[in-house]
């Protein structure tokens, strides 16, 4: 037995759940040795039952209190509003390591290597986790699920081998919410991928995206995401920004063309982020990205994958970013997470704030839902959370929080007071003359005459405190 496995066995024997969980629910793998093909004898989560809905009064941490998948809310079952997905990279590749400290987690599907055998073991753990959590969607980066080889051909072969296994394991019930290519970790992408000043890097990135789109399509993925973590600049002194933006648009157009050529009917999504790792990234926020798409004639080809933590980094609320995407017809998917305002960087925490979740669901309901998008938990355990059961508890909490947000939105709609307050603020535009203004039928000369007729405006109160009181009353 390898040293890392032996250490894990010792750790596992010493770990138990909190006092509310039965002694039989200790998390220890059934067999640490496995075999040379990435197989696993037994379960990865032997003490974890299928997670069920038990209602708000339940004290069982391994149960849903607010998320009841088949319950109908506002004309749809909760599962159809939510379309939850598990992020492979955070859930199965997260180690707890950070720039200041070594990894803190030793998972039963890891042995410290990144071999094909370990990749297969992680994939098996992924599908067991999905089945027990009751989620039928997952998201992945190509290099998260399969190791990068010494050449592009070797990397593609590795990916094919893992994707073949994933296709077998997911069956007909489970499929990716989206897939993507990881174009930010390898040193070749230090200056960007689609915006790199090096043509060889641009072509390599295109080949990687081509392959990632193909495997996403093969697995039945419903969307494909572009996250431009390195698509930006550190200083304009050595950057031709116009040329880089042109290259980026050409790259995305080629991706849209390839999507059609291979018969992939999924939605292409761009994920805005303002900074980190690049000082200034071209997809800064929803408005910037919408403007970029419109300028280059891509507005009909792409929608946005809005991440709440990215919204706050750009100086906005998640609700603002969702509404900006929605009113531009671009709201496609949500990465459900949050950041810590005292830290100020991309901490990727699970969303547990009921108020924020209610605002998020308000935009989703106004949008008529997210399908074929959904909620992807691009969130990770805290460095200090090291038990396997914590993975379940974190996802349960995130799912319950958003479900509670949906229930709150239903209360707001049923009550109608908040909507009436908003309508009243704009009621003067519901007049005949106001309607003509909104229809663009009134010129400045006519507006001037009306201003003389009306005299000095008597501006009504905005009733912000009342709006906040109404909103808080449903939480």
Automatic annotation (TrEMBL):
The UniProt record lists the keyword Cell inner membrane: no
Entry keyword Isomerase: yes
Biological process, per Gene Ontology: D-xylose metabolic process
Catalytic activity: alpha-D-xylose = alpha-D-xylulofuranose
PROSITE patterns on file: XYLOSE_ISOMERASE
Molecular-function annotations in GO: metal ion binding; xylose isomerase activity
Keywords, alphabetical: Carbohydrate metabolism, Isomerase, Metal-binding, Signal, Xylose metabolism
Coiled-coil annotated residue ranges, if any: none
Leading EC class: isomerase
The family this protein is said to belong to: Belongs to the xylose isomerase family.
Name the UniProt record assigns to this protein: Xylose isomerase
Organism: Zostera marina
